[in-house]
Amino acid sequence: MKKKLAILLSAVMVAGIVPMTAMAGTTTYVNKTITVEKGDLTGDTSLLTIKDNNNDIDTAITNGDPVEFTLELEGAEWRDDVDVKTEVETYEPTITFTKVSDKKAAVSIDTSKGTSPTAYYYIPLYTIIKDKGDVTVTVDGKSSVVSSGTFTYAVAISGSATAKVGGTVNIPETGAKIKDITISETAAGALEAGNIKLKLSKNFKFDSIGTLSRVLGDDTVINAYYQDSDRELIINITGATADALEMLLKDIVVVPDDAKIGAVAEITISGAGMTKTTLEVGTYVDYGVKIAIYDEDEEMPTFYAGKVYDEEDDATLAVIVSENVANSINTGRKMTFTFPEGVKVTTGYYHPDKGYDYAEGIGGTGIYEKDDSDKDAWDKVNSYDYEIKNNVVTIKNMDITGGKAKMTFAFNLAISPEFSGDVDVVVGGAALDNEQTLTVAKVVPGFTVEADLNEVAIDYRNVAATNIVIKEAEPGVFEDGEHIHLAVENMQFEKGMDYEVTAGDIEVDKINVDTRDGFICVEIKEESVKAAGEITLSNVQLYLDRSLPAGDYDLIALCDEYSDLFASTQLNRKADTTYFDIDDVTMVKGYIKVVTAGRDVDDSTFTTKIVVPVGSYSIKAGEKDIAIDVPAFINADGYTMMPLRAVVEALSGTAIVTWDNDTKTATVLFGARVISMTIGQKSMKINGVDVAMLAAPVIVESRTFLPLRDLGYALGLNESQVNWDAETKTATLN
What we know:
Layout: E1 26-30, E2 34-37, E3 41-42, E4 47-52, E5 67-74, E6 76-78, E7 94-99, E8 104-110, E9 120-124, E10 127-129, E11 133-140, E12 149-157, E13 161-165, E14 169-171, E15 176-177, E16 181-185, E17 194-200, E18 204-208, E19 211-216, E20 222-229, E21 232-237, E22 246-250, E23 253-256, E24 264-270, E25 277-284, E26 289-293, E27 302-304, E28 319-323, E29 335-338, E30 343-345, E31 367-369, H1 375-379, E32 381-389, E33 392-400, E34 406-411, E35 413-415, E36 421-428, E37 436-444, E38 447-450, E39 454-457, E40 463-464, E41 468-472, E42 483-488, E43 492-493, E44 498-503, E45 507-513, E46 520-526, E47 534-538, E48 541-543, E49 551-558, E50 584-596, E51 610-613, E52 618-621, E53 624-627, E54 633-634, E55 640-643, H2 644-651, E56 656-660, E57 665-670, E58 673-678, E59 683-686, E60 689-692, E61 698-700, E62 703-707, H3 708-714, E63 722-725, E64 730-733
Parallel strand pairs: 2-12, 14-25, 27-37, 39-50
Antiparallel strand pairs: 1-4, 3-10, 4-9, 5-8, 5-11, 6-10, 7-8, 11-12, 13-16, 15-23, 16-22, 17-21, 17-24, 18-23, 19-22, 20-21, 24-25, 26-28, 28-34, 29-33, 29-36, 30-35, 31-34, 32-33, 36-37, 38-41, 40-48, 41-47, 42-46, 42-49, 43-48, 44-47, 45-46, 49-50, 51-52, 51-64, 52-53, 54-55, 55-62, 56-57, ...
């Protein structure tokens, strides 16, 4: 709802309206002065009040005489959303507010219908604050009874920039990542050109400056962020900001530098208009836990989506958790390893010495310890319990005696068919004094499917589609005797498909089309060894049910009981469990786009998106550009006029547009719809029913044009499917 500038006539109860017989002066004042910042909007908090000196409006304004005066701002500008409204008990005067310029406005009150029995006029000051200091409005009563004067209604204070930190951390000898620091302007323009300095207290130094990012406002004024010395970071600001700016500094690492135990690390932030602030970020403690990859030189393992990994050689990189000093780990609390959604720790297990049936002591379900040369460290960890729930491993009840403890873990995983990317594990929990995220593996699709997209009308049987190419990620992904099952959503493949091995040394036994459900089954005879296999399926044809709605349909790979491609969706042979309940995986999104229904249904059902720019000699139908000889235009009444034949024929190859030159009538046969319209008449017929139009069709350069929304309605589109972009002057039908 618009915010309105209201000239409100507040009623003082009087028995009736009495004609005015004499002129009298008024008192003008502002009821309240408010405190604001530059850029703020003001409204009805401050009211300019015009009051009759005798508390009797009849003595101030003669019945029928106009009241005219001006209002001029200093330090502010009138807002653009001015909308005068009156609320008067006994009459409705014509009150006019005219914005003469950004700072000046004229007000007039036509009292020819009589005066109101009130002694007050209230004018809310709807303005935009532009300058700091006093913000005033000057009233010039001119020759009216309104008294003149300058009145302060707001005071604009100077903005500032402040800093805060998300909390404090314990800083061990190895250092720690401090909490995020936020630097914020309280008002736009608070920051000035210059350097914001972050200075660290003595006996600490910066080990990593982390990252600086903008949260709010214009970041073009941020010129650089860098480390100037061990104890000083610099943010260079080039000038004042147009909008209030908020910056976030993340992942700054602080380490002790000859500090004493218990020393407090502080960062003082100042410069470039900042309010000088000192933040406490951490305390140097004599304990700490190091969390890291056990062997940084070890190659990152690659897993395939949908697989289950339960062998020693198929484990993640090992994670080492070690104490900097004894008793750094809180043995009464829990330590957790949290994997991403779509990754689960397997309930089949392996231990390097005990094998798959090992079920007690260190190691166990889904995790195993990696050998370490420091055997004394292992002697300090007597035992612990573990719990595995989906993607979280919890270590608890740790028995650690004497010295610095060290524990190293690797994990066997089950991967969702829908997961890809880095496998990041978050190592943390209440047992540790810090938290660390480590990448321990990466996941890629075991195979991909490529195919060009198809736009089709429903022809029921033998609808031709583009070739399908199946590609292995590397040799041996498809194993001997394995089956690849592909399907299209809500459709069936027809028999007669051809195949060819177009790359690699893989051998295919055969391909079949399931006679009941219509999916493709590709059976692998011998897996590839030297080069990744590639299988091309050609002469692809589909059966589309007659009731199939228009829209996009994906090419999918089935996670069915006959395929080991996605073992994580099957009953696991060792754990007697299914890790992910997923029926299929999308391989080619929108492989089939049904753009019209069947010929014997209604071809007016479509999903082809038509884009028609005004003035352009080309329109877009789906992904195709179609040239037209006469462009769309906007008529004198503001209606967007569309070329009838060009749009209709772009929607459907079966639509027919005819022209009767004698009657100047265009007829459209669009599916089950028969639409006719006559040049110059503001109505059309749809299946024999008269329908009113916004404007009559016209002929321009031998082409029939009609309004955008009339065309959309005629073709069966609802209001939400007909859109107009005023900025680009483009019509869209979808």
